[in-house]
Amino acid sequence: MPVNFRSDNEHPVAPEIMAALAAAGTGMAHAYGDDPWTARLEEQLARVFERELAVFPLVSGTAANALAVAQTTPSWGGVICHQDAHLHTDECGAPEFYASGVKLMPVAGEDGKLTAEAVEARIANAGHAGDHSNRPTLLSLTQATEFGTVYSADEVAALAGVAAASGLCVHMDGERFANALATTGCTPAELTWRAGVDLLSFGATKNGAMMAEALLVFDPAHAVELGRRRKQAGHLLSKMRYVSAQLEAYLTDDLWLRLAAQANDMARRLVAGLEGIAVIRPAFPVQSNEVFLHMTPDLAAALRDDGIEFHEWPGRPGLFRFVTGFSTTEQDVDTFLTAAAAHCGHEPLTV
Known about the structure:
This protein is of the alpha/beta class. It has 2 domains: 3-9 and 256-343, Aspartate Aminotransferase, domain 1, CATH 3.90.1150; 14-254, 3-Layer(aba) Sandwich (Aspartate Aminotransferase, domain 2). Helices cover 39% and strands 17% of the residues. The chain contains 13 helices and 13 strands. The mean pLDDT is 95.
């Protein structure tokens, strides 16, 4: 049986969430979000984030990100994001499509993270040609980043402060938001609206849901007519109860944080077990559930022959991504560590 480190998207549905789906599948319920599950979810999220907010359940992170951009950014506007952000590299132009031609403005940054100084410089250098150029109107942060690193609350606040000083809104792509919370120990409020975030793409699919995301809007002004925008985009779900039921179960008794903590723990176990093997080197700090490793192609091929599944990162030869999830076990990690040690001439590693 292969040991799968390809993606947290490939993990099963958490039993608690599957049970909630089954329970939601009995009897009739009003459509398009006018159901008890969605009503309870809105109340639940308000408690979790410690404030009133607008909740828009969805089935994909791409939809959440694209709608956030379209809602906050005029067609002549620009979105500042990291050059490796999912928004820029993996959405097939959805943000630009839904926002009628908005321009993404990628910025470089070590370990997948933006800095306040780099964002400030990008804002200052944008629009130098007057009406001939796009003006940045939105800053988008990925939490956790594409390379598994995590912004602290202070870092988010510094970035949001730079954005606010120039009139930009702040969006957070939180497809692995639970993993970031599990690392920082912050509350959801501390890592979002209290630090200056206006909208959050709240992810659950990578962390135990079947297909459940939500766009959360902390500033009511940014939610005006968002319901119609969602409908126009084809993302108003007739049987919304099945998404809301997943998210309700996800949040109940801190299930989402427990699932994320398990995934993070397995990532730490993996990288700790590689200490002393010089030919396998972590590329970035391991702060969530993604581990990026430098290896030779021959070693990667040998590990795949052993049934270890993982991705080579596009455009970066010799860089390989290992992703743990809530159902990753210590045995899974140790199977990889034993194989890696054997191919590198080491004794089997223990953690």
